[in-house]
Design a protein that fits this description.
globular, about 200 residues, 7 helices, about 80% helix, mainly alpha, single chain
């Protein structure tokens, strides 16, 4: 008969298990952090490809305003979802970690606003297809860089890898040109985020 008051056979294993349980409790669900963005990229950039394909080809005759509107709405929804999920986890922590998270979140907002102001200055100086490529390529490039920065801050190899992957496929899309960039970002970028959320959730469990 076992004694419930007896010390555990392996105290180190018990400590490691409790640390893993605590980390899982404090870590936001990867699906809530990556799936909204992956879905937004897959659908939004997918519609852009169908309406504004390579060399101006139209695969599906959608209203010109629809793809970009859908993309913006989905990106806003993704931001709200991940902000809520990340905020719930942040409320359970304090000190340097919480401060790092807040500063990192502000960095995203400030960086995207700054880039938007810059790109707006080119609105009347580039053809529509190149202007769209500038906006899409620049925003995806910034996303990849910030993911890599986040991976470096928290020593998170998975987040750093996602940022590197995003940066690589973005460069490939930019070189391929307008239309192709939307397809590559939709499939490899959005699909990659959906897969990352699923795999990292499995590892967290």
């Amino acid at each position: 008969m076992e004694d419930d008051d007896a010390p555990p056979a392996d105290p180190l294993a018990l400590i490691q298990r409790e640390r893993a349980n605590l980390e899982r409790d404090l870590t936001p669900d990867p699906r809530l952090m990556y799936w909204p963005w992956g879905f937004a990229w897959l659908v939004g950039f997918g519609l852009l490809f169908l309406r504004f394909g390579p060399d101006g080809k139209v695969f599906v005759d959608l209203p010109e305003w629809l793809p970009l509107t859908v993309l913006l709405v989905l990106l806003i929804a993704a931001g709200i979802t991940t902000g809520f999920a990340g905020g719930r986890s942040a409320r359970q922590t304090a000190g340097p970690t919480s401060r790092q998270g807040k500063m990192y979140g502000f960095a995203w907002s400030i960086a995207f606003f700054s880039l938007s102001v810059l790109f707006t200055q080119f609105s009347g100086h580039l053809p529509d297809d190149l202007l769209s490529l500038l906006w899409a390529g620049g925003m995806v490039a910034l996303t990849g860089a910030l993911h890599m920065a986040g991976g470096a801050i928290w020593n998170d190899r998975q987040l750093f890898f996602l940022g590197a992957w995003t940066s690589v496929i973005n460069v490939i899309g930019i070189v391929a040109g307008p239309g192709w960039h939307s397809l590559i970002v939709a499939v490899a970028g959005g699909g990659g985020m959906l897969l990352a959320g699923l795999l990292w959730r499995s590892r967290l469990r």
